[in-house]
Amino acid sequence: MLNDNFQSWVHARQHAVENALAGILPNSVPFRLHDAMRYSTLGGGKRVRPLLAHAAGEISGADAESVMRVSCAVELIHAYSLVHDDLPCMDDDVLRRGKPTCHVEYDEATALLVGDSLQSLAFEVISERAVAKDPAVQLEMVRLLAHAAGSRGMAGGQAIDLDSVGRQLDLPELENMHIRKTGELIRAAILLGAYCGEIDNEELANLDHFAKSVGLAFQVVDDILDAESSTATLGKTAGKDSKHNKPTYVSLLGVKQAKEMAQDLHRSAMEALEGFGERAERLRQMTDFIVQRQF
To answer: Would you say domain 4-291 falls under CATH 1.10.600.10?
Structure first.
């Protein structure tokens, strides 16, 4: 059970991220495109990636404004990916965060441009002001976000996902797909939050191990929820993976073993944080939050 202090922290950060995104997103000509960008980004979502960035920033003593900026950049990339994932040429979904998907509410051409524009805006946000003390570190942060979003990260994972429809992957293949599709952006959120402060190489390696474990755990839990939860609970179409004959941890392992895998990844993530002491308390709470969602 998540404690009241953590719940208050989550709600405060979610509200702050929402306000920051509202200030970042354009509201001018071309009005239809900008309205669609705001529609697709604001007013929904758990903001897990920004929360992880803020929690990681507590480890490195990061400047709060810098962490907010990088957390918004990551969330803009995430929002773009959802808009494109929902398109008819991808997952062809009509519901996202409890409301019609972007291409349903607007049209496919607008949704395509929304994704393109959100991705570009993310890099504008992370590069237009100093978010690290060392310019070389900030350059590495831009590279890290680009890698996480590209063909060796999120986009590549989506390509593998589309190519895997109708056939069962083995566990290493499934993990490789989700490390790219989901894990890389979660890893980027955590490392970017830490890079906003001071962190040594050993701590960074431990944090990287944590990020990889929690990123994979997030996807395993997503697969379980897709199999067990209702559309109303998820805010998106439930059971679509099974309907589209897509490989998941549930289809490969069954629900029981998938839940055991999530718990194993939870333990691995917690072990990676042992050397950080109280500085990692928010990350520990975030790990519980991610793994304990609804089950």
So the answer is: yes
- Distance, CA of 83 to CA of 98 (rounded, Å): 14
Residues 137-185: pLDDT tens digits?
999 999 999 999 999 999 999 999 999 988 889 999 999 999 999 999 9
Res. 236 pLDDT band, cuts 50 70 90: low
**Cβ count within 10 A of residue 271:** 13
- Is there a contact between 184 and 147 (Cβ–Cβ < 8 Å)? yes
Sequence ranges of the domains in the chain: 4-291
Say yes or no to pLDDT of 243 above 90: no
DSSP H helical ranges for 128-254? 135-149, 154-163, 171-178, 184-195, 201-228, 231-234, 240-243, 249-253
- Nearby residues of 112 by Cβ (< 8 Å), 6 or more positions away: 84, 87
Backbone angles phi, psi at 96, to 5 degrees: -150, 125
List of residues 6+ apart from 240 with CB closer than 8 A: 91, 93, 226
Tell me the residue type at 158.
Q
Non-local CB neighbours of 153 within 8 Å, separated by 6+ positions: 147, 180, 184, 185
Which two three-digit tokens encode residue 275?
């050397």
Strand partners, 99: 96
Shortest CA distance to 145 belongs to which of 167, 120, 168, 163?
120
52 vs 295, which has greater pLDDT? 52
Q: Find the largest Cα–Cα distance for the chain.
A: 51
